[in-house]
Amino acid sequence: MTQPQLNEFIPPPECPVFEPSWEEFADPFAYINKIRPIAEKTGICKVRPPPEWQPPFACDVDRLKFTPRIQRLNELEAQTRVKLNFLDQIAKFWELQGCTLKIPHVERKILDLYQLNKLVNEEGGFDAVCRERRWTKISVKMGFAPGKAIGSHLRAHYERILYPYNLFQTGANLPVRHVTYVSSVCPAPGDLQHRECDFSFSLFSDTVDQYMCLVCGSGSAEDRLLLCDGCDDSYHIFCLIPPLHDVPKGDWRCPKCLAQECGKPPVAFGFEQASRNYTLQAFGDMADSFKSDYFNMPVHMVPTELVEKEFWRLVSTIEEDVTVEYGADIASKEFGSGFPVRNGHFEVSPEDEHYLSSGWNLNNMPVLDASVLTHVTADICGMKLPWLYVGMCFSSFCWHIEDHWSYSINYLHWGEPKTWYGAPGYAAEHLESVMKKLAPELFESQPDLLHQLVTIMNPNTLMNNGVPIYRTNQCAGEFVITFPRAYHSGFNQGFNFAEAVNFCTMDWMPIGRNCVEHYRQLSRYCVFSHDEMICNMACKADMMDVDLASSVHKDMTIMIKEEEELRLKIIKMGVEQSQQVDFEVLPDEERQCYKCRTTCYLSGITCACSPSKMVCLYHTQDLCSCPRSNLTLHYKFTLDKLYPMMVSVKLRAESYKEWVSTVQEILENKGDKKKGLKKILQNVHTAKQSKYALLFILKDFVPNPVQYGLQDLLTRVDDFKQRSERLLSDESPSPLELQDLLDVSLGLDVELPQLPLLRERLEQARWLEAVQQASSWPDSLCLDTMRRLIDQGVGLAPHSSVERAMARLQELLTVSEQWEEKVLSLIEARPYHSLETLDVALQEVENIPAYLPNCLQLKDVVTKAKKWLHEADALQLGGRIPVLDSLSELVLRAEGIPVRLDPLSRLEALVGDIQAWKESAAKTFLLKNSPFSLLEVLCPRCDVGAGHQKSRSKKAKEAPQISKKGSTKLESLCDVERALSESKDSASAVSEAVLSEVRQREMEILLALRASNESKLVPAENCCTLSVCVCQKAPSGAMVQCELCREVFHHGCVETTADLEYGQAWLCPLCQRSRKPPLDKVLPLLASLQRIRVRLPEGDALRFLIERTVRWQHRVQQACTEGALEKVSKMVSGNTCLGPELDELMVEGFLLQVTLPETEQLYRYLLYKLAPLPSHSPPLGNDTEQDQQSPRGSPHHNKVMTITAKTKRRKESSDSQHSDKAKKCRKKKSKKSKERSEETKRMGSPTHTVSDPAPSDSEEDYSLCAAPWCREPEGDEVNWVQCDGSCNQWFHQICVGLSAERAEKEDYICISCTQPDYKRGE
Questions:
Q1: Per-residue pLDDT for 1 more than 60?
Q2: Nearest 10 degrees: Cα torsion 1291, 1295, 1297, 1300
């Protein structure tokens, strides 16, 4: 047997379970009285009605609407709530100190601050523990392993978190003020003019600091002077106790305000009401959903033991917060009882009418003749009228005893079980003392905590402290009875419906009087007046049962004696006035004792000074301070009337004793001394009239009844023998018939030889019935049930039917165990088995009629595997390209399926290829330590301007105005990524539309941002008030301007390229988002992604980037062809505007995350046209004196920027030496024909110079670069490359972004050939 784990819940022993026969079940109170000697020793017991007793459910489900209580499980348990309250106090303390409490972790678990604080206090406090080095001892007590230096960590956490709090609790944190004011009235800090210090002289000053520390009296060190957010007092952080290291970031309270805030009394704990009403169906749906989600299995398959252990784990932890709802104390009077009642809305069928008058109907039980609550005139909801309870999993009822320590009975109409715990009545005070000892903090604030039904404590904790605890699981159709003063608690296993009510029998009466005295000491109100009930019973003494009369007489004797002593006492006190009052007609609140809240009935005291107040005779002195002669005694009965009432009850009780004495005299007489028939019949008649219980004894002494009774006895014995023979000869007799026959034998005062055999057959029949019932429900026939039935069958007497059933059961158990082990090995096998293997095994186990968890798990695994394979096949069905999210989700799900899935390796390879592609793309595009993701770089920008300084409120307001014209659905990268991922089809139309919309929004916002940044630089007189650059300061010194966003920056605030050439654009750190690789490095990425055939947002963004790049190149070609660039040179010199088309064209070129020769060429061309360099400028763009003296307001090239450069242009010299130097060696790749390659080498250079007056057409075509924007490179050697596509045109390698090595190793295809839709401008 395995040992329970540490802190694992151990179920207490089971309480008694009773199964009454129909004869016993007929009288509820007689049966309860019969089982009371056994059941009251455990406090609770369970009663299973006869199987045929199944009352219909009569509650009006349609009208039943209720608001449940909210229960947070870890707040229910007393010790856990103490810890939570302590943590709340600590958190509030630090919150008022301007800090947020963060509970530290030690050894990877949350540190129990409450236990640490308690152990340190027990060891003498922080100083003592440090002095005597007991931190290791404390760490061991807290459950940490010794030798790991945990003690030093605990000391650090205590000193940081708990030590200041304990100083505050003891008042040691209140600083001693060394400065006292001369004035008797404490002036405000700003009005202080005179103060007396603890020096040897007085210091008077006409001027004082506005804020001064109330400890040292100094206003120095203002940066370390704290101002209280509660009272505005000032303190230096180094004058506080303990001193603070830094100024708190949040609100801070001084020690005085801290004491006021934390000293407020705590609010009494109680359950909150839920915010919504439920119907029964709605609550059931919620409850079932909660349980199935929590345990991840169907609600009916969750074992009760698992729910029980999980419940006690949850209520004992502070790390998990589980909240449930409980529909408790619902009045049946409003919505109808679950039992049928007369004149109710529920129509009772004729065969169910006997349930209307059944004593076990909870509407009838409190008002039966044997119940003393019949004599309580008020309808007390919950005591005389049943309450309804609708439970869900983990909803609980806390430790409590019933009002007036009465009995209670609970019936579970339907639903999942309800788990109960109970303690016997004699252990009630012990249980209370244990709870007060273990959670004294709760009882200090709420002395009547156990009467509030809001506190629970683990039964194991109570048992460890000597409290006897018993448990039971109440199933549907079963009763649970609690006995007087028996504490009980429990919880619900799931959705169920129960009904409960109280009742009191005559054995309860002395207990009830003791309860009233106990309530008086606790100042707890009474639900009804015990004295009123006794007097009501005494008024009906003639009709009272004699046993009840005896109990009432004893109780009444105590009551009258006590009343007489109290009235004599108040007379001696000087109370002279008296008045007769009918207390029963007064509302309960008007006749409650003002002091102890006891309900007055026999008497009460009032005073004219406060006529609405009344006290019982025990608390006369607590009413008021008036003279006793002003007090008035209110009484219900005079003592002269009370005594006759008691005498009538006494006569009723003693008449029974006299009759018993006479009957015993008759029974003891022998022979001729027996009484005559007339005397015996007279006693029989008396017994009938008085309803005496011993009437049946006299029947044996009457001649005719004796003869009749003897004949009747012989007839019944003969009938018993015949029935016995018939049942014993039957192969499978009914257990009900056997039990009925044994019940008949109880009425036969004869020794019957068939009884032992009948008892054996009854055990066999019950076992066979249990086996048959278990076999008829295979879904609940588990291995433990089979083993239990086999163990029970081994102890039975041998019989052929038992042996056959045992053989079948043993065979089923053997097969089930073998398959359970085999299936477990199949599931846990590594490597995994194929789906076909598991499917074959599943088909075999499905025919086993038993509940086999492993086989059910196998079925679930096979189902999941088939579903996974179906989804994997459908993923690429019809040539569709799968989305990365769907692919990743499918691979992730496969990890939890222990089956060999053939497509998994292929899908994992696809995912791996995608990851490798993303890494390659990231290396190509992303800068080192880039804050941007790959998708952010590839997509058009959604956050244009968001990265700039927060103070640009105007720009931030202006830019969105333009964006409002477009769609507002794609305002962030997350929206774009979601839109790209949600387009499931492989077509790019959706992604094209999404990215086009983002691109349009990017252009609109960026153009507005450029206009805003340029406009603020126009008014030069306001230059000092401008806020520019990342530092948000005014322009000063050398500035540099971003060509994209047009913002200006200080040279010292941003990194700039010192040797930036003339014609090279500079972008700020916010606009330079990537490496901007050449297009020939980007195109292979797209090609490799198309080979992988998986859709992902980054791929769509890359495809859109390339298409956008091509479209931009085409627009540049059109601008060149249509002469738009030539118009720039014709503009007026004063007007530097490029026009919206060229401006937008240049902006989009800078936005492209790809390096293109066209971008640089277009920028240089526009720059040269609008701001040409002087002719004497240096050729390589070094700064000259003239450049430095040139105006910095040029609107066309890096406004207020001092860096200039000169473009390199083809030299138009006819010098032969220059021609020799400028020869270019055109290199052709190995793929082209040898002849062309050799011809190229022989020719050496396709140079075409100005000195050639009339070159041929072929030579001109051969010597010109086909790139739209040729960079016209110069040098000793210029390398060429020929397109391997369909056009066969030649390009400078530098113009198309190729290196010599790449040109040798790889094929090059120009942009015209890679994009069929692209047409080169002629």
A1: no
A2: 60
Residues 87 and 318 sit within 8 Å (Cβ to Cβ): yes
Nearest to 178 by CA among 212, 216, 152: 216
Label residues 901-928 b or e (16+ Cβ within 10 Å = b): bebbeebeebbebbeebbeebeebbbee
DSSP assigned state of 242: S
User: Whole-angstrom Cα distance, residue 514 to residue 404?
Assistant: 9
Q: Is 323 exposed, middle or buried (0-12, 13-18, 19+ CB in 10 A)?
A: middle
Distance (Å, whole) CA 1199 – CA 1013: 11
Taking alpha carbons only, the member of 298, 261, 321 closest to residue 84 is 321
Q: How many CA atoms lie within 13 A of 274 on its CB side?
A: 18
CB neighbour class for 1231 (10 Å; exposed up to 12, middle 13-18, buried from 19): exposed
Q: Which residue has the higher pLDDT, 927 or 987?
A: 927
d(CA 466, CA 423): 11
Nearest of 197, 162, 165, 167 to residue 180 by alpha carbon:
197
Average pLDDT over residues 1193-1208: 34
- Peptide bond between residue 735 and the one before it cis (omega within 30 degrees of 0): no
85 or 780, greater pLDDT: 780
Residue 54 tokens read as 């199944």
Annotate 205-220 with three-state secondary structure.
CCCCCCCCECCCCCCC
- How do strand 577-580 and strand 631-635 relate by DSSP bridges? parallel
Q: What is the pLDDT of residue 1209?
A: 33
Helices (H), 390-545: 428-438, 440-445, 459-464, 509-522, 530-538
Q: What is the distance between the alpha carbons of residues 605 and 614, in angstroms, rounded to a whole number?
A: 6
Query: What would you measure as the largest C-alpha separation in the chain, in angstroms?
Result: 172
Write down how long the chain is.
1322
**All residues at 6 or more sequence positions from 761 whose CB lies less than 8 Å from its CB, including other chains:** 727, 728, 733, 738, 799
CA 514 to chain centre: 45
Q: Which residues of 584-616 are buried (b: 16+ CB within 10 A; e: fewer)?
A: eebebeebbbbbbbbbbbbbbbbbeeeeebbbb
| Helix, coil or strand: residue 1156 | coil
Lowest mean pLDDT of 344-353, 829-838, 1190-1199, name the range: 1190-1199
- Joined together, the tokens standing for residue 787 give 């083993």
* Structural tokens at position 1017: 């630089």
- The stretches of 831-945 forming alpha helices (DSSP H) are 835-845, 853-875, 884-894, 902-925, 934-938
The pair of structure tokens assigned to 694 is: 């011993």
**Contact assessment for residue 398 and residue 381, using Cβ atoms and an 8 Å cutoff:** no
Count how many Cα atoms sit within 13 Å of the Cα of residue 537 in the half-sphere of its side chain: 33
Q: Environment class of residue 672 by beta-carbon count within 10 Å: exposed (0-12), middle (13-18) or buried (19+)?
A: exposed
Q: Residue 117: CA atoms inside 13 Å, Cβ hemisphere, count?
A: 18
Please work out, in degrees rounded to the nearest 5, the angle formed at the alpha carbon of residue 54 by the alpha carbons of 49 and 60. Answer: 130
How confident is the model at residue 52, as a pLDDT? 92
Q: Which of 125, 167, 154, 160 is nearest to 262 (CA)?
A: 167
The reported pTM is 0.47
| 139 touches 146 (CB < 8 A) | yes
Distances (CA, A) of 962 to 113, 942, 972, 1137: 56, 13, 16, 21
| Beta-bridge partner residues of 195 | 181, 203
Buried-exposed string 134-171: b where 16+ CB fall within 10 A, e elsewhere: bbbebbeebebeeeeebbebbbebbeebbbbbbbbeee
Mapped onto helix, strand or coil, the DSSP state of residue 234 is strand
Average pLDDT over residues 436-443: 71
The two three-digit tokens of residue 227, written as one number: 């101002």
Residues paired with 1292 in a beta bridge: 1280
d(CA 918, CA 1085): 9
